[in-house]
């Protein structure tokens, strides 16, 4: 299924690996930020309930 890459196999496979690593880092950063924002929102909502 994979085409013959010839003498550029290392470069092409490295580019794929780097791209996948960057994609995973973006997803993890997005999940981390969403978790942080959700916690901040929960804190703000709790303060609002306490203050009436």
From TrEMBL:
<comment type="function">
    <text>Required for the export of heme to the periplasm for the biogenesis of c-type cytochromes.</text>
</comment>
<keyword id="KW-0997">Cell inner membrane</keyword>
<feature type="transmembrane region" description="Helical">
    <location>
        <begin position="12"/>
        <end position="32"/>
    </location>
</feature>
<keyword id="KW-0201">Cytochrome c-type biogenesis</keyword>
<protein>
    <recommendedName>
        <fullName>Heme exporter protein D</fullName>
    </recommendedName>
</protein>
<comment type="similarity">
    <text>Belongs to the CcmD/CycX/HelD family.</text>
</comment>
<dbReference type="GO" id="GO:0005886">
    <property type="term" value="C:plasma membrane"/>
</dbReference>
<keyword id="KW-0472">Membrane</keyword>
<keyword id="KW-1133">Transmembrane helix</keyword>
<dbReference type="GO" id="GO:0015886">
    <property type="term" value="P:heme transport"/>
</dbReference>
<dbReference type="Pfam" id="PF04995">
    <property type="entry name" value="CcmD"/>
</dbReference>
<keyword id="KW-1003">Cell membrane</keyword>
<dbReference type="InterPro" id="IPR007078">
    <property type="entry name" value="Haem_export_protD_CcmD"/>
</dbReference>
<keyword id="KW-0813">Transport</keyword>
<keyword id="KW-0812">Transmembrane</keyword>
<dbReference type="GO" id="GO:0017004">
    <property type="term" value="P:cytochrome complex assembly"/>
</dbReference>
């Amino acid at each position: 299924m994979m085409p013959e890459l010839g003498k550029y196999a290392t470069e092409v496979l490295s580019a794929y690996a780097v791209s996948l690593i960057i994609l995973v880092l973006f997803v993890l950063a997005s999940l981390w930020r969403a978790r942080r924002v959700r916690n901040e929102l929960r804190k703000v909502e709790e303060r609002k309930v306490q203050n009436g």
